[in-house]
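hey can u check if this looks right to u? its 287 residues, i copy pasted from the old doc so theres a chance i mangled smth
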Amino acid sequence: MKKLLLLLVIGFIFQFNYSQERYTINGETLELKTEIDGKLDLLWNIIDNEYRYFVRTDDGSILELKNTKGDNNKYQEEYKSTLSDLTNGQSADKLKLTLYSLRNYIDKYNTSVDSTYVSDSTESNVEFRLGFSGGITNNPFVGNPDNIKTPLIGFELEIYEANVLPRSSGFLQARHAFDNDDFPYATTEFSLGYRYRVINQPSFSIYGQVKLATVNLSRIEFIGENDEIVDINDTSFDVPLIFGIGSDIKISDNSFITIIYGELFALLLDNQGNFSTDIAIGYKFNL
């Protein structure tokens, strides 16, 4: 099992990335990825921690899509007029400067002017991110008089809008807290939650999260009145509103190291007297 997980990690780290080419634009040498190749091409990359987008016309000219701030501190949205001019007036009023929005806009134009153009865009605007993690927990919402820490593993599927820098996301999470000789309590938890990125940069993000609903499959052992071992299994459903914080640190175009403090406090569950220790480190990648 350990060998299989190691192979999976290695495989995920060396995921396929877009090919890049070097261009000189207005005296600046840049490496850009080709997102769309058609009558009008879409090029982009993350440069100095900033997403930058470019279009290339039939004659090979490359123009940057800009959205600078004016003297009134408002964004000028120059990219809209640039694209409208290049697409014979195709409306850009609702266009956002995101990879998903630009891709759909340019795909629509290429399809309208070239009957041989084949679009690879999908209608869905939802994307997924898969992750796994390991850490420790003191099960802060369970009686634990000696504040025993036990190992924790987790898996999650994060669901978010197809946006270059999505702030909001939902997640489905499964995690298992192991027991040990000093604390014979183990639980497998399935949860549904929401995450909001307070700091949202291309290279890292810091977010708050809340578990909205949980199902726990728990097992506890204890010594009964007649010195017999009592083993109790229990299943519970809760709407606990458990709050936590976390951070994703980008290590490639499609993958992240993640640090999660999953259970800081809950609105509808009582802390059992110990300051929460519920920390995990993991890896996640875009599907």
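The helical segments are 2-13, 78-86, 99-113.
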